[in-house]
Amino acid sequence: MATAAPVAKKLTHFNEYHGKKYQDDYHWLRDDKREHPDILAYLKEENAYADSVMEKWKPLQDTLYKEYLSRIQEDDETVPHKEVASDGSVYFYYTRTVKGQNYSLQCRKANSLEAEEEIILDLNLDKENKYISLGALEPSHSHNIIAVVIDYAGHEDYQIRFKELSTGKMLEDHIDDTTEDIVWSADDTEILYVKMDDSHRPYQVWRHKLGTASSEDQLIYEELDTKFNVGLSETASQQFAIISSQSSTTSEVHYLFTNDFSAKLTVIQPRVQNVLYRVTHYGDQFVIRTNGGGDPSHPESFKNFRLVTAPADGRGTGMDKWEQVFYDENVYVTGITPFKNFLVASERSGGSTRLRVFSPDGRITAHTPHKPVSFQEEDYSINLREQNYHDNVLRIQYTSWITPPTIIDITLADGEQEVKKENPVPNYSKAAYESKVIWSTSEDGAQVPVTLTYRKDLYKEDGTNPCLLYGYGSYGICMDPRFTVTLFSLLDRGFVYAVAKIRGGSEMGRSWYEDSGKFLTKMNTFTDFISAGRTLVKQKVTTHERMAISGASAGGLLVGAVLNLAPDLCKAYVSNVPFVDVINTMWDESIPLTTGEFEEWGNPKDEKYFEYMHSYSPYNNIKSGVKYPNGRVTAGLWDPRVAYWEPTKWVAKLRSEGVTNGGKADVDHNLLIYECQMNAGHFASTGRYDYLKDKAKDMAFIIGVVVPSKAQ
User: Fold this and answer.
1) Same-domain status, 366 and 432
2) 324: left (phi over 0), alpha (psi -120 to 50) or beta
3) What are 455-477's pLDDT values in tens digits?
4) How many other C-beta atoms are found inside a 10 Å radius of the C-beta of residue 143?
5) Within-domain flag for 474
6) CB distance 180 to 136 below 8 Å
7) Are residues 357 and 502 in the same domain?
8) What is the set of active-site residues?
9) Taking the model in full, what pTM does it have?
């Protein structure tokens, strides 16, 4: 086992930006093909060193893993959801887990829950592929054929295969290098699917006829603007295929009838800069969630989005036809779900998620009665589950940091709620834990909610609790509660788990993201997080010496920026798949996803954005000779979102700049370990047991560094 941290060689390389040269001695660690022997050897050295450091916590890892398993009902199944086939037949779909197996069984029963079980797909039978991620399992309208969409590498390039359910045989058709989006034709003979370009951008929609070679498929839509990504979906009514082309700020939607994929595409509303919209279908109307349709000089007037309708009878669907159904400037409308006789809007207000049920009388108008549905806990999350369009029953999953995922059916006619299942969690008592919200004041006075979760009998009022502070803060993504069995092993050792809902997310409305957490206001994301950490100390939740921080992907950027801005904030950090080489990545348009990111971070070819992005890019702002906290960094070799070389270069440079010992040879070194999973992508291990083992490593590191006495 390695006993000393690897030292990456330096090869002088310069990048020229805006007439200036910037040295990058670790540029050589990039290999787009992931096959250079020197790079692979270096990554293996890093993995060996990480293993050697983690060895002393191996008993703790094993203990944590056993604790995680003890809270999981390994033999379990989901609540079946009903699907109605085109001929009126009924099928009940569900997944089932089996003790000792990594992947869920995909199952169904015909006509009755008492019928014999049919296993549609069992990924556990695949012994050849080291990585398996199921992207979609989509039945045809008759439910006689099912499309199976799987990624076998972690690079999010999917393969589509088809299974004939009456015989159990796989059809010869196969389509490679797609996204997970597909839509079936009404007669089961064709599908639409999405292809990606060389930079991994979804940009084309193709039409495939079953029984033919994919080389004969027809291109029906292509998006040439590299800032836009193409998505494909089907309306709940199954009457329309929806093709959406969207950047971070602008969208355009086309539709096709599912009974005629040969027809010409129809656009809902040609793209207008800064206007976003999404479309679904209800009766003879399209229902549209949009920020647009206001003053022609400011068409994106509705910051928190509104609901409008447009005719679905061919009389035109442009902005001039839009009729407003609902708008409240204090309510952020986040989604719409139609049923045969009702419409449900998902929304946020005051930092909490809610639902709003509309009860149309044939058509949806501004006069349609509606009422909100809210819940009791202070911080909770609602996720819509599989819906049966015909039943007018909304199925949701309700959870909080301490409430296990609970499936609830809401009868839309009267609002009656029926709990169908609360996930069983052995060796867990909700009454032992508490979750509450405190508020942190940022540098500019912004009030940021921070959720604290802890075990009540171990919480101390004197500020000596160990604490893990987590954040993300990008793309408008909200850090809503997610119940996870791994959390309680941390809380049972006296930790407080804190989640800062910093700007860059949209927990407090769309402006929390659009106006205060992207482009030239991105620094708010990092200073909000630092202020949250300092608030935890001021309010006697913890101390800096007993605090760890964590983030993944853009949350890894957050961790990296915070380390540079406030290296004294915490004792330890874990940064998973971190986006840290901001300038070099955002300048290179050949890297997957880069051009689409211009509307999130800015285009560095504009010098104004370059200077701002350079000011927070973790790779470019390491404080040489300043001691940083103990760190664990992870990556996936095949990650298409954050290339492995970003964290690899960052760790090499951190070591070179002396951050483990503050540049002094005679002081104790802080730890810096780096693990690159050689068969994984952005989301690490896909099997449920492998995921728990990964999590045990992260938590063992945090516990071992922050509270060594708890690592025994």
Assistant:
1) no
2) beta
3) 999 999 999 999 999 999 999 99
4) 20
5) yes
6) yes
7) no
8) 553, 639, 682
9) 0.93
